[in-house]
Specification:
Number of strands of chain A: 3
Largest interface: A-B, 76 and 70 residues
Subcellular location (chain B): Nucleus
Structural class of chain B: mainly alpha
Number of strands of chain B: 3
InterPro entries (chain B): TFIIA_asu/bsu, TFIIA_b-brl
Oligomer: heterodimer
GO cellular component, one term (chain B): transcription factor TFIIA complex
Strand content of chain B: 5-15%
Structural class of chain A: alpha+beta
Radius of gyration of chain B: 32 Å
CATH architecture of one domain in chain B: Orthogonal Bundle
Protein name (chain B): Transcription initiation factor IIA large subunit
Number of helices of chain B: 14
Strand order of the largest sheet of chain B: 1-2-3
Main location (chain B): nucleus
Radius of gyration of chain A: 17 Å
CATH class of the largest domain in chain A: Mainly Alpha
Number of helices of chain A: 2
CATH superfamily of the largest domain in chain A: Transcription factor IIA gamma subunit, alpha-helical domain
Chain lengths: 115, 408
C-alpha cells in the first residue's frame, strides 16, 4: 500500500491526536529533552502512520448534509465551511448535528499517498 | 459507531509512531525513556481532550495491549509522574522542597514566586541567602528583582549576608533576620543593581552606531574620564564585567604614553580605533546593513496589509508585501504600534473562511480528510471523502468514506 511514498500530507497534524503529539513534543523540546529535528522526524512518522492506519483499519462510513457557506479550492486543497450540518453514521441510527463544520480535504490521488 | 473505533485506531497510530520513531531516537542519541515519556504525554493529552474513550483511559496506567514492547513498560510508571505534576522543567528542584510553600501561601503574588524562589534557591550557595519570608511577602517587583540579582551575585553580597547570618538564629535554613537587617540587605542589593544599570547604560551608549562626530567625541571624552576614575578609585565596583574593550583602549593610552609619544596623537589614534570598533559593532548588529531595513520593511508591509484589510472588509489582502519604499516615515510609527507582531504569516488574519471560527481545535468542528470526488451542479455539491477524522460536538469520529451533499 504505497509504503514507499516519499511524502504524506501534514493535514492530520491539526486533528486532536496530532495536536496532542505536537504539544507533547513541544514540552519535550522546551525541557531540552529532545532536539527539534527529532520532533520533525516524529511528526513525519505520524503523518505516515495516521494516513496508513486510517486507510487500512477504518471501515466506518458516514454521510452528511448541510448548507455550504464557503468553499475554496487552493493548491489542490478543498476547504468547505458547511452550516447546519447533519452527520449520519452508517450501521447506526445515530446522527450528529452541528451548526457549522469546517472541512479541510486534500487530494487522495497524490503520488506517495495510499490509494 | 465510528466513535468507538477512535480509541483503538489512535492507539494503533501511537504505537506505530513510537515504534517507527525508535530508530530516530537511537540515531539522535536520545534515551528510550524519553520516547516512553512521549507516549505517555501524548496519551495523557489526548485523554484530556476528552474526544473519545481510549483504551488506556479506564485503568490508571495504560496497559496498552497492542503495544509491542512490553519490556519497557514498567519504566513508564516512574517517568509518568513528573509530567502529571506539572513541575518546573529541569533542575529546579529545591533542596528543601517544603521551604518555599508557606511563603507562597503568604504572598499575594503566588504565580510569580515559585519560579523566583526556586531559581533563587538554586543559585544561592547556602540556604541563609534566601530572603526572609516577611520581606518576600511584602516585596515589590523591583525589590524582588534586586533579591534575585543578589542571589545571582551572591559572592559579592557576601558581607551583608554574613552579617545576617551571624545575627540570625543558628538554625541555618530558617534564619529570619530582623526587619532592619532585611532592609540593609535590600539596600545593598539595590545599590548593586544600580551599579549594574549604570554600567549597562554606558554599554548601550557605546553601542549606538549613529551619532554626530561632536556628540561622539564629547561622549568619548566623558567616557575616558569615567573609565580612568573607575580604574583608580572604584576598582571592582563593576560587577557585570562590561566595558572590556574600553579597558583595552585605556591600555593603548598608557602604552602610547610610556613610549613617549605625543598625547594628542595618541588620542586621535584611539578615537579612530574606537570609532572603527563602534562602526564594526554597529554593522555586526545590523547584519551588514541588511537585517535592520529588512525587518522594518517586512513589518511595515505586514502592518499596512492589515490596515487595508480592516478598513475595507471585502478587500483581498496583498500577499507580496509590496511597495515598501513608499512610506518610510510611517515605519517607525508602525513598528511601535505593533510590537508583538512576530512577522509570521500567522500574524495576518485569514480572510473570509476563518473569520467566525475558533481556533481551539478541541472545540472547533473540523473534518480533516481526503477527497475522492468533488462535484457541483449549479448550487448543488456532492463530495466523496475518505480517510477522515471528524471532530464535532467535542467528539471525535474516524471514517473510511464519507459522502456529503450540500447546497450553496
Amino acid at each position: 500500500m504505497a509504503t514507499n511514498g516519499p511524502s504524506y500530507y501534514e493535514l492530520y497534524r491539526r486533528s486532536s491526536i496530532g495536536m496532542a503529539l505536537t504539544d507533547t513534543l513541544d514540552d519535550l523540546i522546551s525541557e531540552r529533552r529532545i532536539e527539534p529535528q527529532l520532533a520533525m522526524k516524529i511528526l513525519a512518522n505520524f503523518d505516515r502512520s495516521i494516513t496508513e492506519v486510517l486507510n487500512e483499519k477504518v471501515k466506518a462510513r458516514l454521510t452528511f448534509k448541510g448548507h455550504l457557506d464557503t468553499y475554496r479550492f487552493c493548491d489542490e486543497v478543498w476547504t468547505f465551511l458547511i452550516k447546519d450540518v447533519t452527520f449520519k453514521m452508517e450501521n447506526s441510527s445515530q446522527t450528529v448535528q452541528a451548526d457549522k463544520v469546517k472541512i479541510v480535504s486534500c487530494n487522495s490521488k497524490r503520488p506517495g499517498d495510499p490509494q | 459507531m465510528s466513535n468507538n473505533q477512535v480509541g483503538v485506531i489512535y492507539q494503533q497510530i501511537i504505537a506505530d509512531v513510537v515504534e517507527s520513531s525508535r530508530v530516530d531516537f537511537e540515531e539522535g542519541g536520545v534515551d528510550e525513556r524519553v520516547l516512553e515519556e512521549l507516549r505517555q504525554g501524548w496519551q495523557q493529552k489526548l485523554s484530556q481532550l476528552n474526544v473519545a474513550t481510549f483504551p488506556w483511559d479506564p485503568k490508571p496506567e495504560p496497559p496498552a495491549p497492542v503495544i509491542s514492547n512490553p519490556p519497557t513498560l514498567p519504566s513508564n510508571t516512574g517517568n509518568y509522574q513528573p509530567m502529571n505534576m506539572n513541575t518546573p522543567p529541569t533542575g529546579a528542584q529545591p533542596q528543601q522542597p517544603a521551604q518555599p510553600m508557606p511563603q507562597m501561601n503568604n504572598g499575594p503574588r503566588i504565580k510569580a514566586e515559585p519560579g523566583l524562589e526556586n531559581g533563587g534557591l538554586n543559585n544561592m550557595p547556602q540556604a541563609p541567602f534566601q530572603p526572609p519570608p516577611q520581606a518576600v511577602a511584602g516585596m515589590t517587583a523591583e525589590e524582588r528583582a534586586a533579591a534575585n540579582l543578589a542571589a545571582a551575585y551572591g559572592q559579592r553580597a557576601a558581607a551583608s549576608i554574613e552579617q545576617i547570618q551571624r545575627s540570625g538564629p543558628p538554625a541555618g535554613q530558617n534564619s529570619r533576620p530582623t526587619p532592619q537587617q532585611a532592609q540593609a540587605y535590600q539596600q545593598q542589593m539595590q545599590q548593586q543593581q544600580q551599579m549594574q544599570q549604570n554600567a549597562r547604560a554606558q554599554q548601550s551608549q557605546q553601542g549606538q552606531p549613529q551619532m554626530s562626530p561632536e556628540e561622539y567625541r564629547a561622549r568619548q571624552a566623558a567616557y575616558t574620564r569615567e573609565q580612568a576614575q573607575r580604574v583608580q578609585g572604584l576598582n571592582g565596583a563593576q560587577t557585570d564585567g562590561a566595558g572590556d574593550d574600553i579597558e583595552d583602549s585605556i591600555a593603548v593610552i598608557k602604552r602610547l604614553n610610556s613610549k613617549g609619544e605625543e598625547e594628542s596623537m595618541g588620542r586621535i589614534e584611539i578615537d579612530n580605533l574606537i570609532r572603527t570598533r563602534i562602526e564594526a559593532m554597529g554593522q555586526s548588529m545590523e547584519g551588514g546593513g541588511l537585517m535592520l531595513p529588512l525587518k522594518q520593511a517586512t513589518k511595515a508591509g505586514k502592518n499596512r496589509q492589515r490596515k487595508v484589510k480592516s478598513s475595507s472588509a471585502s478587500g483581498v489582502g496583498q500577499h507580496d508585501g509590496g511597495d515598501d519604499d513608499e512610506d518610510d516615515d510611517e515605519k517607525v510609527k508602525d513598528e511601535d504600534l505593533d510590537e508583538d507582531a512576530i512577522n509570521s504569516d500567522l500574524d495576518d488574519p485569514d480572510d473570509g473562511l476563518n473569520d467566525d471560527e475558533d481556533d481551539d481545535e478541541s472545540m472547533g468542528h473540523i473534518m480533516l480528510c481526503m477527497y475522492d470526488k468533488v462535484q457541483r451542479v449549479k448550487n448543488k455539491w456532492k463530495c466523496v471523502m475518505k480517510d477522515g477524522v471528524l471532530t464535532v460536538n467535542n467528539k471525535e469520529y474516524v471514517f473510511h468514506k464519507a459522502s456529503g451533499e450540500y447546497e450553496w
